[in-house]
């Protein structure tokens, strides 16, 4: 097992998480956890190293869970249908143009164009 590969993949997972690319980060974290699990299987005779790697695996698993939570929260915002929307009163909100003979009408301001009938 290549320890530099574990280190590099952990670094990449953290970096992607910092950049907000949570899905890619999760892939790296999953890979690192699998690599550490394989390493632990090969360290049967060295209890001290095995214990250190178990602690590292636990810490990385906690980071991975946080990244998953961030991703789930972000996705909840993106797909939230619980947003309150104003209820339409059915009243048209189109502005009413002042009449030409209206004394409050500014002669320098053109009225809006008349709608085209189809």
Automatic annotation (TrEMBL):
Q: Which CDD domains match?
A: Kp60-NTD
Quote the Pfam families the UniProt record gives: KATNA1_MIT
Q: Which domain of life is it from?
A: Eukaryota
Q: What residue spans carry the region label Disordered?
A: 81-118
What's the source species for this entry? Saccoglossus kowalevskii
Q: List compositional bias (Pro residues) regions by residue number.
A: 109-118
Q: Where is the composition biased (Basic and acidic residues)?
A: 98-108
The residues forming a coiled coil are none
This one is known as: Katanin p60 ATPase-containing subunit A1-like
- Katanin p60 ATPase-containing subunit A1 MIT domain ranges (all copies): 6-69
């Amino acid at each position: 097992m290549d320890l530099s590969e574990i280190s590099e993949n952990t670094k990449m997972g953290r970096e992607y998480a910092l950049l907000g690319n949570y899905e890619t980060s999760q892939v790296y974290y999953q890979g690192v956890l699998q690599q550490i699990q394989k390493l632990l299987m090969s360290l049967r005779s060295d209890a001290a190293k095995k214990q250190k790697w178990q602690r590292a695996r636990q810490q990385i698993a906690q980071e991975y869970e946080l990244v998953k939570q961030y991703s789930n929260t972000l996705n909840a915002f993106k797909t939230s249908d619980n947003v309150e929307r104003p209820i339409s009163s059915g009243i048209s909100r189109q502005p009413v143009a002042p009449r030409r003979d209206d004394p409050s009408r500014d002669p320098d301001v053109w009225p809006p164009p008349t709608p085209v009938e189809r």
